[in-house]
Structures are given as structure tokens and as C-alpha cells.
Amino acid sequence: MDLWKVPLLFSRLHMFPFFDLAHYVASVVALKEQRGAVEVSVRSPFACWFSAMLYCFGGSLLSSLMLAEPPVAFLAKGANILLASSVWYLVFYCPQDIFCRCFSFLPLRLLVAGMKEVTRTWKIAAGVAHADSHFKDAWLVMVAVGWARGAGGGLISNFEQLVRGVWKPETNELLKMSYPVKITLIGAVLFTLQHSQYLPIARHNLVFLYTIFLVIFKVKMMLTRCATSPLAPLEAALGHVLFGLGKAPSKVKGESATSSNRSSTCDRPSEQHHDGVKKRQAKKTE
Amino acid sequence: MDLWKVPLLFSRLHMFPFFDLAHYVASVVALKEQRGAVEVSVRSPFACWFSAMLYCFGGSLLSSLMLAEPPVAFLAKGANILLASSVWYLVFYCPQDIFCRCFSFLPLRLLVAGMKEVTRTWKIAAGVAHADSHFKDAWLVMVAVGWARGAGGGLISNFEQLVRGVWKPETNELLKMSYPVKITLIGAVLFTLQHSQYLPIARHNLVFLYTIFLVIFKVKMMLTRCATSPLAPLEAALGHVLFGLGKAPSKVKGESATSSNRSSTCDRPSEQHHDGVKKRQAKKTE
Amino acid sequence: MDLWKVPLLFSRLHMFPFFDLAHYVASVVALKEQRGAVEVSVRSPFACWFSAMLYCFGGSLLSSLMLAEPPVAFLAKGANILLASSVWYLVFYCPQDIFCRCFSFLPLRLLVAGMKEVTRTWKIAAGVAHADSHFKDAWLVMVAVGWARGAGGGLISNFEQLVRGVWKPETNELLKMSYPVKITLIGAVLFTLQHSQYLPIARHNLVFLYTIFLVIFKVKMMLTRCATSPLAPLEAALGHVLFGLGKAPSKVKGESATSSNRSSTCDRPSEQHHDGVKKRQAKKTE
């Protein structure tokens, strides 16, 4: 087989059912790791299910809202909903928690996380193309919709938390972007440039390279326990050149340095640290 | 007259103006019984009016949003808005509070509450049919839209409260469903099954039977001061079989028992009890 | 030149680029004056940019949502976004804060504020006409959309604040309307009446007179440091006649008097006073 055909064949992969399944598993397990999620699953299975659906289909929901298409459209994809609901059921209500125990096997986690990242590429590309069919050559709309489709669950996290009775207004993904949201934004920009033919690269090659990048860094961050974001130097440079952030007075500089350190660590494990920071901030605002 | 024709004739009833009027009266009086609503009516009549409209037309608004139709469409129905606004004016600003005093006469309350339940059936059926015209055979969309149309005021209660300057993120109708929201969900499922012809029953018969059920239990709950929800045993059984909720350890079990007791009591009179619970929860989350 | 032609020629003015520029400058400077906005600009330029776009294009966004048109449509207007983004960049990140220092020159502030008010008239008129093209003769929809288009930034302020990590549920523009929101509502009613031909005045004359009124009072309020709203007597009279607010018992009367005093002062400079009031209210609700 010709090696040059790999990207082309790769870009013709179907997401349903296996990659979608991986996305649902990774999303629902991430939901279960949120503080308070297990209590919600006991108090109100319905709120828990709805929250899980927002994790799984948040991108589709948000991009529908942005383009004034019916946001319930995702409910019409019966097979996907059934798959995601089964995953939700197994993750939260499996006797003896068998499902989650199996899933704590590291190679399986890595496989699922890698496959989830593949769906991200597909979603960004689909979002960009879909936006282009609504607004001709509106590259900012293409970036926004591609980003929303790829990182939807994160962007609507404030409202997803509200379903579970949690409200953390002092933070959101725009104020303190997590690594997946940032990398999705970069991906949306790249796919928009490619779609507008400013980027001299074939679509399947970009799909292939971007996915490889996503998977490698995801796996690396999981193995090394998320030490540093590969984007941190780029961000620091941009922040310095564009917004003069490095030239800020020492106190503010300290704060911004903290926040970029924070964003460079992985989102989930540092939850407790985050909460501490939030409490401090909450005190300040009071 | 042939007795078998009663359901058919019943299903041809027009909601406007009398049944709609009853719905508006019951909704606006329920708003006035909310804590702080009277103060809002003095501070800002406009916010009070908007809140009342959300109570009266919440279902229409929410189902429009879900199907990406203009959410302001309800404002185009001039006669309904005029009727609802008149009711709002009489309930909140009638000299000597004459309107509310008249309405405290129990038989009148029962009549109005019964008529309001009739409008619920009509809304669910209309919502299901409307969703079907957008998405062919997407039964989950039909359930969602029928439910939203029938129980809209409840489902958007967090945002309705926000209009009045109240924000209670620790609870919502998904996390702790009230009886009307639950029974509307069941109704939406039944009408969807009937519409998809899985339920071997004529539409007018289902309309008739479901409405009878709604009205009888509403009246019974008002007369007996809302002792137990007729759905509590069903919920307990489902919770046990599907989610193993009965098998949970004692502490969690106690919590879930409390919550099902809570949901089995009526929503309005136990407001103070609710608040007590919320404060405790708020303390826990701090 | 014939003096009678002035309104007609005035009503043919193009908003882009100069009047739109003034609107963006006034809006972004108002954002920068919000407490905490400068910290957000250091912590997360992206959230700051998005917040600025909500200030600049809030009306367009809100009216799109109301009519179920794509809310991202404003992103498709490349030139406007570029202009607004440049203004945002200069206001927040200009070295030595040169831009804001220049802008503190009073005659310039007055000019920009006056030009911003001109764009308000154009937006209201456009919103009313646009709503009429969707719903024939639905005058309430026309008022709502015209109002949303003209005062959008204010009406969505709760959600704009959320982007910056600020959440003040105890107040919103419906509960405590600021002067610009009120005067926009009146404008929306006038333009709707004119559009429905209940107001015997030519469109360009109404545009001219309403704009003159807006600009004069805006300039007067800036020069006199916003002593009294020109609408206060009208409001008091309406409140008395329609809602019997003057007849309320002394305590409530005191409160309502305070609130109308409050609304008659300008929105920005009394921020600290507002916050004090809010804290008191927050204590009460606790």
C-alpha cells in the first residue's frame, strides 16, 4: 500500500460507532469525576442523564444555537443518543462499578482518549464547512462554529453545571481556557484557513497532521500527568507582543503568571487547587 | 346524545378564551405567591409583567427556542397577551386586592385549577404534533417539545426568577422535579407513543382520559393539601429497578427518601421548607 | 438650501464608519470603566474581547435571538468587527493609555456620546422594520425587537458580566431600568406607532426629532453630571395612575422613591452607590 494514501484513507474514517463511542465514554467518565456528580446521579437520574448528554452533544447543541438551527436536533439522532445513554447508564449505575474499574486500566484510557481526540478533528472540520454553507466567506463565523462544535462541552460548562445545581460564575472557559478548548480554537483557525484556501495544504493532510498532533499531546499529557501545555511558550510570546502582558507591574504579572501556569496544567486533577483559588476570588469580590 | 361521542366533542373544545383565561389566572396567582413577587411589582411593574408573561407563555417560549422558531412569536398573539396582561394587572394592582380575595373562594380555585390542567393536555398534544412536523419520527424530540410546551413555566423557572432578581442555582426542575413537571413528562411520552401509533388508542380518547386523570389528581391534591404524589410508588419502583437507588447505603438512602418525600408534596405551600433545605445545601457547598 | 430638507437628508446618513466608530468607542470605554474590567483584560484578553463585542453588538445579537436568526451573524460583518476590535485594542492595550487619555478631553467625549445616540435611533428604526418583515402587524414584537436592537448591550448585561466572571443576579435592566434603556423603549414605541401609521408624522421627521431629543439630553446629562432623568415626572405620574405606587404605605413608598431617584441618576458614576445598595439587598435576601 502506498504510504501517501494514509492521510486520505484516514480522512475517510467513519466516526460512528467506534470513535463516537470513545467520545461518549471519555465525556461521561469526565462528568463522573466532577465533584458532586455522583450525588446528582442518586438524587436525580434525569438531571444526571441530561448533564451527560450536554457533555456528549454540547458541541452540536452550541453550534446549532449559533446558526439558529433547532438545538434539539441532536435528539433526533436516535442511534447516537442510544449509544450515549447506554454509556451513561453503565458509567453511573453499573453494579459494583465494574465499567469504571475496567476503564481505570491505563492503556484502555489512553486508547479511548486518543480516539476522542480524533472525533474532535472531525467535528471542527464539519463545523467549519457547515458554517460556510450558511455564511459565504465569513471566516470569523467559520472559526466560531468550528470551535463551538469541537469544544462545545467546555464552552457551555457554566450552564451544564447549572443543570447539576452548581453555579460558578467566577470562572468560565473564556476567562481561563483549558488546554482542549485552546487547541480546538487553533484547530478551528487552521481549518478555516484551509477552507478559505489561504493554507496551501490538502484537507486530508491537515486532518491527518492535526489529529496526530492532538493525539500525541493528549497521550503525552496523560502519561506525564499534564505537566506543561505545549502552547504555553506561544501564549506567553503572543501575550507579550500583543498585549504587553510581560510588561505589567509585578503584582499583576504574578497573577498572570499564575493563571498561565494554571491553564498549562490539566483541567481535571487540579480541581481542588482551582476551588481554592476561586474561594479566594470570591472573597475578594465580596 | 351518544355517550361515546363525549371524548370526541371534548377534544374539539377551543381553549381561547375561557380555558386560556383560567391558565393565566392560575399562573399569575402562583407568581404572586412566590416570595418577593409583590415587592417586585412595586419596584418594577415592567419586570413583574415580564415575569408574569414567562409564567403564562413559558411553554410556548421554550418550545420555540428548541425548534429554532422566533421566541417572540407569543407576543404576536395580541388577544392572548391582552388577556394575560389584564389578569396580571388585576392580580397585582387591583384596589383593595379584590381580585385575589374573590379568587380565594375554594370552589373557584378548584374550577380554575381544573381548567388550567385542561390547557396542559392541549399544549402537550400540540407540542408533540408540532415537533413531528419538523423532525419526522424523532420520538425523543417529540417528547422534549411536548414536555417543554406543557411544563414550560416550570422548566425555565431559574431564568424566570432571574428576571425578578432571584437566583437559586442549587435547585432546578430537572434536579428536583415537581409533580406537574413529572406528570407532563409522562403525558408527553404517552402522546408521542400515540402519535407514532405505538399506543393503540384514538387521539381524542387519550386526550379525554389524560385530562380526566390530570384534573382529578389536581383537585384531590388541592383538597387534601397535597399529601402524596400518585406517582411516588411508580418512581420508587423505577428508581429501584433501573438505578438501584433502594440499595444505596443508608446515608444516601435517607437523602433520596427525603427528596422523594419532598417532590411528593405540593410545590407552593412548602416553599419555606424548601428554602430551609436550600440553605443547608448552600452551607454544604460552601 | 431648503431648511425643510434637513430631516430628510439627515435620515439618509450612513452609520458606517464614523457613527459606528463612535458607538464602539463609547461602548468599549464604558466597558473599561466597569469594575474589574481592566483585570480581565490582563487575565484573559479573549474574554475581554468577547465582552467588548457584546457591548458593541449586543443589540444585534439579542434581536437575532428573538427572531431566530443566526446570532453569530454579527461576526459576518467583517469591517465592523475589525473596527470594533481595533477600538477594543486601543482602549485596553494602548501604550501609556494614550487613547483613553485623549478621550478624557470633554468636547471629544460629548461628540462621541452624541454620535452614539444617533446610532441608537437608526438601530431602533431598523429593528422595528425588521420585526415587521417577520410578523405582520404584531406591534408588540416590533416594540420588543426595536428595543432589543437599540438597548441590547444593557438588556443582556447579566450575561455579558458572566463572561467576565461577574454575576449580579439581584439586579438587571428590567428590574431597575437605566435611562438609556428607558428612552430606547419609548423610542421603540414611537417608531412602532409611526410604522403602523398611528402616528401622523413622516418617518424622517420622527428620526430627526427623536435623535435631537436623545442627543440634547445625553449632552445635558453629561454636562450637569446626570442630575435628573427627564422621564422622572412622567414615570412618577404613570406609576401613580396605573399602579397606585404613590398610594403605597410609607415604607414601600420610601423604597420606590429611592429607586426612582436611583434610576434618574446616570448609570456609570454612581456604580459605587449601586453596589452599596446591592450589598444591602443581598444581605436582606440571605
Number of strands of chain A: 0
Quaternary state of the chains: homotrimer
What spatial form of chain A do the alpha-carbon principal axes imply? globular
Radius of gyration of chain A: 19 Å
Helix content of chain A: over 70%
Mean pLDDT of chain A: 85
Q: Structural class given helices, strands, pairing of chain A?
A: mainly alpha
Largest sheet of chain A: none
What string, H for helix and E for strand, traces the elements of chain A in order? Answer: HHHHHHHHHHHHHH
Structure description:
In chain A, 71% of the residues lie in helices and 0% in strands. Chain A has 286 residues and is an all-alpha fold. Residues 247-286 of chain A have low confidence and may be disordered. At the A-C interface, helix 8, helix 12 and helix 13 of A face helix 3, helix 4 and helix 5 of C.
TL;DR?
Three copies of one chain form a homotrimer. With 286 residues, the first copy, chain A, is mainly α.
Features:
homotrimer; 286 residues; mainly alpha; globular; disordered C terminus
Topology:
The structure is a homotrimer of 286-residue chains.
Chain A: H1 6-10, H2 18-32, H3 37-43, H4 45-66, H5 78-93, H6 98-103, H7 106-134, H8 139-155, H9 157-163, H10 179-195, H11 203-223, H12 232-243, H13 250-264, H14 271-285
Helix pairs in contact in A: 2-4, 2-5, 2-7, 3-4, 4-5, 4-8, 4-9, 7-8, 7-10, 7-11, 8-10, 10-11
